[in-house]
Amino acid sequence: MVYSFLLAAAVISGPVANALSNGLAVTPPMGWNNWNSLGCDVSEDLILSTSQKLVDYGLQDVGYDHVVLDDCWQDVRGEDGYVTPNKQRFPNGMKPISDELHKKRFKYGMYSSAGEMTCARFAGSLDHETKDAENFANWGVDFLKYDNCYHMGRMGTPEISFNRFKVMADALKATGKDIALSLCSWGEDYVHTWGMSIAHSWRMSGDIYDSFTRPDDLCGCDVNNPADPFCIAPGTHCSVLFILNKVAPYSDRSIPGGWNDLDMLEVGQGGMTDEEYKAHFALWAALKSPLMLGNDLREMSAQTLSIINNPAIIALSQDPHGRSAQRVMRNVNVPKDEYGIGETHVWSGKLENGDQVVILLNAAGKDIDIKAPLSEIFVSEGPGGSSKEAKSDWEIWDLWADRMSDADAQSILDAKDLKTKTGIFKKLRWYNSAEKSYAAGLAQGDERLFGKKIGNVKASGALSVKVPRHAAKVYRLRRPGGAAKVHTEL
């Protein structure tokens, strides 16, 4: 039986698995989605008022340029085969929302499912892909989150799932409008091997929830072996650590135009500590997951704002090299936390300008001294310390060192008018990716994207850092003399 399943996986038909080359999602998409915090409590007012919050709080200017309406926008599918929006929640329909978002320089995202129903049990798109794609194009949609609920049994091998999702990919293409496709396929049927052929991102696990390490039966795979390829119940309530462990064996599948999607961000929801949220955000950025805020921006704390607006961390996500960090070390022989979980990781990845991102993650029950030799940090360039990178000196730059202060973040949240907010950002000299792209800022050595130099590591040496419980240290290794340039613009 196992042999026949693997054989089916090997004979998938369709195009070679290369990322789409249509100019969409060349870096991981960034934006906001309502589902994690608000679920079905959606409306025209919510979408438009939240888009204004993204502007007011400077989040659009650091890259959050998608506003995505999730499930529950639908009414019924009419006799003509088209789904209509809920008239009470969206009295003016979808096109005026799209027009307003485009005026504000946002991309408009919507939701459906490759099933007979969506996950909230509204009309799904299965066998109605052409008409739904026409709707989305006519409404000015730029991004489609495409879920996996109620698929009428059309899964079980890569070929079956590929063909089901490809129908919508083809229908979107046939409209003639550029619409990025985000598959929410839960990691089923080896999506990481074929998702990039038809989509711009693909979910690689069950749904995240607001916990750092807590196991939950609703996250159906084996908590001790989350990478199990035969998991048949991806589920929900998957912790940050579970998702990291599941993606680790194939984190390298992300390339420009096609991204492993680790699910939406939980930062600011209230179930994790500040250090846990910092680790969550930084790892999602370094692993090139789309950065979709999931918190209610109308009730955001200063601490939350100062995590999600850190340009030095976002620059990892938007780095032009477009390759994910990989886990190079894992240690499970450490003290356990209150959930019986305990492990440490070292994640490492090459960046466009020759820098290296290194993240030391402590998911154990107490503070841990983590040692990461250059031979392991650069193992992808050559094992056993054989690479020239491992034999070089490096500067250590801390990417959280210039995090916005709580006082400054609160002043932005409290400001009553655009002039006041603009003045605060100008005084802080905060990075604005609308004025200078991350690619340009990195190439120019803009200091705001590099954090602060805190030390050095000698050739063939090691990083050795005490990392607090349930936290991560996030560094750029830079070659000596490659320090960031002083930014003097006002």
UniProtKB/TrEMBL annotation:
<dbReference type="Pfam" id="PF17801">
    <property type="entry name" value="Melibiase_C"/>
</dbReference>
<keyword id="KW-0732">Signal</keyword>
<feature type="signal peptide">
    <location>
        <begin position="1"/>
        <end position="19"/>
    </location>
</feature>
<dbReference type="GO" id="GO:0004557">
    <property type="term" value="F:alpha-galactosidase activity"/>
</dbReference>
<dbReference type="InterPro" id="IPR041233">
    <property type="entry name" value="Melibiase_C"/>
</dbReference>
<comment type="similarity">
    <text>Belongs to the glycosyl hydrolase 27 family.</text>
</comment>
<dbReference type="InterPro" id="IPR013780">
    <property type="entry name" value="Glyco_hydro_b"/>
</dbReference>
<keyword id="KW-0325">Glycoprotein</keyword>
<protein>
    <recommendedName>
        <fullName>Alpha-galactosidase</fullName>
        <ecNumber>3.2.1.22</ecNumber>
    </recommendedName>
</protein>
<dbReference type="GO" id="GO:0005576">
    <property type="term" value="C:extracellular region"/>
</dbReference>
<keyword id="KW-0326">Glycosidase</keyword>
<keyword id="KW-0964">Secreted</keyword>
<keyword id="KW-0378">Hydrolase</keyword>
<dbReference type="InterPro" id="IPR017853">
    <property type="entry name" value="GH"/>
</dbReference>
<dbReference type="Pfam" id="PF16499">
    <property type="entry name" value="Melibiase_2"/>
</dbReference>
<keyword id="KW-1015">Disulfide bond</keyword>
<dbReference type="InterPro" id="IPR013785">
    <property type="entry name" value="Aldolase_TIM"/>
</dbReference>
<dbReference type="InterPro" id="IPR006215">
    <property type="entry name" value="Glyco_hydro_melibiase"/>
</dbReference>
<feature type="domain" description="Alpha galactosidase C-terminal">
    <location>
        <begin position="342"/>
        <end position="405"/>
    </location>
</feature>
<dbReference type="InterPro" id="IPR002241">
    <property type="entry name" value="Glyco_hydro_27"/>
</dbReference>
<dbReference type="GO" id="GO:0005995">
    <property type="term" value="P:melibiose catabolic process"/>
</dbReference>
